[in-house]
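=== RUN LOG ===
request id: a7f3
mode: sequence -> structure
chains: 1
length: 413
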Amino acid sequence: MYVEVTTDRGRRYAVRMGQRLTVGRGSAASIRVLADRVSRLHAALELTPEGLWVTDLGSRNGTFLSNARLAPHQPVRACARDTVRIGGCALELRTLEEDEVAARSRARTRRLDEPLLPRDEFEVLGEIGRGATGRVYAARERRSGLEVAIKVLHNEFAPDLQERFVREGEAMVRIRSPYVVRLYHVRRLAKRLFLVMERVNGVSAKDRLCGGPFPVPEALKVCEDAARGLHAAHQAKVIHRDVKPANLLITAEGRAKLADFGIAKVVDSLESLTKTGEGLGTLAYVSPEQAQEAKGVSPQTDLYSLGATLYHLLSGRPPIVPKSLKSFFALLEGPLPSVRSLVPELPPAVVYLVHHLLEKDPAHRPPDAAAVAEELRRLREEHYPDFGAVLDQSSADEETLLPPEDLSRARER
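=== RESULT ===
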């Protein structure tokens, strides 16, 4: 269940359960509105089991819901098909009726609480996403009060694959980076796996692409953050294998975080991949070596997928769009279309980096993710020096962390 937000220019965005999206003209806004009298961070939209809430963020010209001006920083619940006006822009909301929202939320809570999650540990707030490997729910850890995201994996994975994933979780838990969605622990209960992760208030790059390509400097910044996250993972000997816009979450502050580390290892065969709902979309970012031999991946495999993601953010489409598994391999054999043919204004150095990442031979790609991050930063600062406020890498915010559980004990639960 989600709320569809349509701007008066026809662009559409999805607000999913548990998400909080900001609206404004600044680069950190989840929904960018370049209209008169719009503040950098003007308003926020948040979907909870009780409905959609609209909050004015102290804007200079005010936020209006059904022609009534909202008091700053006071959330107000919107009704189905309300209109939010900020400055010279109108946002049309399309949502379910409140009683249906509550009924679906209660049904989801019952399905997840019983028997998958211990009632004394978690309060489930609602579903916030689903993908090839499972569903994601917002929840509150009762002991600490911290809100987390819980991914429940589909139960068709064989026991040996479940055991393998729990083992790999030990490495993923150790990844500490402000550019990676933190995995707190992996649990197995009632023959199902679930992952307890940091909950990110933001929107995926995939959802942002519904409104068209990213501004060039923002695309460079998002992929710079992703490269820093990949560097932290590669230092921990973890390869992501599934870098794509859907696995890049962008916070309200404009920072990108990599999600779903290691999950692709459980479904790393192309046959399995194409049986899922996301199969062909995911193949658009898969490197040639991963397609040919999933076990032969390396850190350079993630760099190819990062290049395909950067290509998509810049141009609005991935470098290849396979319609079948057969066409996927055929497309890999030919040259990729130049990103400059789709975005003529790109600086030549940016074009070079995109295609350097997309080299078919892993040995011809950049040496590591850290080098890619530094090159993206250099290009952004050289060609777009006025782009927003850049986060100070040396003063990244400390994250509130749940103490990781002993995964060896978690396996026996």
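=== NOTES ===
The first helix runs from residue 98 to 113.
Residues 96-106, 108-115, 266-280, 389-413 have pLDDT under 50 and may be disordered.
=== END ===
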